[in-house]
């Protein structure tokens, strides 16, 4: 097996290198910034250097950690691990110079680190500026190590105490460039790994069958990495599918199931009743491909998707504006259930199971998902038995959800059914949108603590009056599988469900739910403010504002908060000021990249929202 290559930088007396050089299967390259003559003059350094050479390690002097590529030939640059213990510019260098040192070091590491390699940086207590430091310094007074690493494409994947006493023969030295030790009590070892590459926003075009015609349309840019991900497919180990399968298995104990998800179209035509247009992802077919009205008037498009990459042809999409022959991505599976009810294509007492991704424009918030996987359960029962059958359905859902995490992570979800009237005005975007689709009887809420309330993950409703019959009563339950996965697996950010980093799915063997451990710790955040005049006499579409932020940042905006609403005396002009926070949950986001996103956001606000920047 190929030996693991380890590079050590900034060694003072080489005692750390000497302590690890005997590890089996390890090839050590120990370096320092000083010349050999200067380094050998430090106490114990000559002895450590001899030990290193006796063990077959390579010792290199006068190595600049910001120019590593210059010190190693192309064949020698694939290091599996790089150590830099207690970096310092020397003498009385302040935080600014030491940040510059670290920034140059991280950029240099990208040229000599193996793809799956690690960078270990040990810092004294408080220097790193992360919540792991106790006590924690103020951000401006720290070395901001995670942000500096992000600028070079690294994420902090682990942090743990640096225990000098466990390293045989190790003695820290180099205090202010002298042969003096310094305190390492409370020191931390920060472990960085490569981030996945930034998303490529090449326009994606999808083809679909409409009647007898094959047409194509461009996927909205904010959804290009979310179309056709296959989370619910048979070979998927994604927690969303695991939850869906376990729920179905639990429900099958009480009801015969009919799964009809495979033929559900993704594209609809017309306008969804009762739904605000600004919440819809409108689609304009590519020029020259408008289908016959007669061929598509019978219902939703019958879609069979094939994605391909092409040029940007979607110039005619107008967010929130209905135009003739316009289509939209489905915001719910409920219309499909209603179509089944109208046709009578169901067996009384059998549970119809529909599932698939749905798409909704919404504000940026922790539990507001522009795309998620919906599980829709439809049950038709004989009139007079509806109360008992509905209760059996609800009890089964509660029991199954409660048991999903039993014996795995220790999370004990609390499940509650709440009357629709008990929520008042405090509705999540998910619950509020569901309210647009029809009257709701119950909300299904899941919490991960003993509190009776939690996040709304589902709604229960009965069929509207026009779909009722004398013999049957139809009830449906809609569940947000993505929110369930977040709550049951301890995933704090919905964007993590869509990450392309294989370390996410690597934590979920097929058929198992586990407590998620983030591979990107303490990601840096960057705050920018933007203020503008809204159009005279016009309403400001805040959902469109949030959707634009999602698009230009590639979902890197984690929060948008209204800071000021000012009306100019005399003219009556209204000005809004928002605070926009950029932060990634799964990949490196540097300060410069966030600033570029903010600039693009400002540039696109006027043509897309009609506002005037201040």
Automatic annotation (TrEMBL):
It is an enzyme of class 6 (ligase). It comes from the Eukaryota. The keyword Magnesium does not apply. GO terms for cellular component: mitochondrial matrix. GO terms for biological process: rRNA base methylation; translation. Residues 521-614 form the FDX-ACB domain. Pfam families: BMT5-like, FDX-ACB. Gene3D superfamilies: Bira Bifunctional Protein, Domain 2 (3.30.930.10), Ferrodoxin-fold anticodon-binding domain (3.30.70.380). InterPro entries: aa-tRNA-synth_II/BPL/LPL, BMT5-like, Fdx_antiC-bd, Fdx_antiC-bd_sf, SAM-dependent_MTases_sf. It is found in: Mitochondrion matrix. PROSITE patterns: FDX_ACB. Its EC number is 6.1.1.20. Its main location: mitochondrion. The keyword ATP-binding applies. Keywords: Aminoacyl-tRNA synthetase, ATP-binding, Ligase, Mitochondrion, Nucleotide-binding, Protein biosynthesis, Transit peptide. One of its GO terms (molecular function) is rRNA (uridine-N3-)-methyltransferase activity. Belongs to the class-II aminoacyl-tRNA synthetase family. This is phenylalanine--tRNA ligase. It comes from Regulus satrapa (Golden-crowned kinglet). The gene is Fdxacb1.
């Amino acid at each position: 097996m190929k030996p693991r290559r380890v590079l050590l930088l900034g060694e003072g007396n080489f005692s750390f290198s000497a302590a690890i050089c005997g590890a089996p299967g390890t090839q050590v390259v120990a370096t320092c910034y000083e010349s050999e003559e200067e380094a050998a003059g430090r106490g114990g350094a000559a002895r450590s250097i001899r030990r290193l050479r006796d063990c077959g390690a390579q010792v290199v002097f006068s190595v600049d950690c910001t120019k590593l590529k210059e010190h190693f030939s192309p064949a020698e640059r694939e290091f599996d691990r790089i150590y830099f213990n207690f970096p310092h510019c020397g003498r009385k260098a302040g935080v600014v110079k030491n940040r510059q040192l670290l920034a140059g070091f991280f950029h240099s590491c990208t040229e000599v680190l193996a793809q799956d390699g690690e960078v270990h940086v040990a810092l004294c207590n408080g220097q790193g500026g992360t919540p792991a430091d106790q006590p924690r310094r103020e951000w401006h007074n720290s070395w901001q190590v995670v942000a500096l690493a992000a600028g070079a494409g690294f994420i902090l994947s682990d942090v743990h105490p640096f225990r000098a006493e466990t390293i045989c023969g190790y003695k820290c030295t180099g205090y202010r460039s002298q042969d003096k030790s310094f305190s390492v009590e409370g020191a931390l070892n920060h472990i960085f790994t490569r981030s996945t590459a930034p998303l490529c926003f090449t326009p994606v075009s999808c083809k679909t069958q409409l009647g007898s015609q094959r047409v194509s349309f461009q996927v909205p840019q904010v959804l290009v990495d979310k179309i056709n991900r296959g989370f619910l497919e048979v070979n998927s180990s994604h927690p969303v599918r695991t939850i869906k399968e376990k729920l179905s298995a639990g429900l099958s104990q009480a009801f015969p199931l009919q799964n009809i998800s495979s033929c559900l179209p993704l594209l609809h035509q017309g306008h969804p009743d009762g739904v605000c247009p600004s919440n819809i992802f409108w689609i304009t077919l590519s020029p020259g491909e408008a289908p016959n009205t007669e061929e598509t008037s019978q219902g939703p498009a019958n879609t069979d998707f094939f994605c391909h990459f092409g040029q940007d042809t979607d110039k005619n999409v107008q967010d929130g504006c209905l135009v003739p022959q316009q289509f939209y991505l489905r915001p719910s599976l409920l219309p499909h259930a209603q179509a089944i009810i109208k046709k009578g294509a169901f067996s009384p007492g059998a549970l119809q199971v529909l599932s698939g991704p749905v798409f909704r424009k919404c504000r940026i918030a922790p539990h507001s998902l522009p795309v998620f996987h919906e599980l829709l359960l439809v049950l038709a029962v004989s009139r007079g038995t509806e109360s008992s059958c509905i209760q059996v359905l609800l009890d089964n859902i509660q029991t199954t959800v409660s048991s999903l995490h039993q014996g795995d992570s220790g999370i004990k979800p609390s499940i509650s059914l709440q009357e629709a009237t008990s929520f008042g005005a405090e509705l999540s975007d998910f619950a509020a949108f569901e309210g647009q689709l029809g009257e709701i009887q119950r909300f299904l809420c899941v919490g991960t603590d003993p509190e009776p309330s939690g996040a709304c993950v589902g709604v229960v409703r009965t069929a509207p009056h026009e779909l009722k019959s004398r013999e049957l009563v139809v009830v449906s339950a809609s569940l947000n599988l993505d929110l369930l996965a977040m709550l049951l697996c301890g995933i704090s950010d919905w964007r993590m469900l869509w990450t392309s980093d294989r370390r996410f799915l690597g934590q979920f063997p097929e058929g198992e739910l586990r407590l998620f451990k983030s591979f990107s710790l303490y990601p840096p955040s960057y705050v920018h403010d933007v203020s503008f005049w809204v159009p005279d006499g016009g309403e400001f579409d805040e959902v469109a504002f949030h959707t634009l932020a999602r698009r230009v940042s590639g979902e890197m905006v984690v929060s948008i908060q209204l800071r000021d609403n000012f009306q100019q005396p005399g003219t009556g002009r209204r000005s809004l000021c928002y605070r926009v926070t950029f932060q990634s949950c799964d990949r490196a986001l540097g300060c410069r990249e966030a600033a570029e996103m903010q600039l693009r956001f400002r540039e696109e606000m006027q043509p897309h929202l009609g506002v005037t920047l201040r």
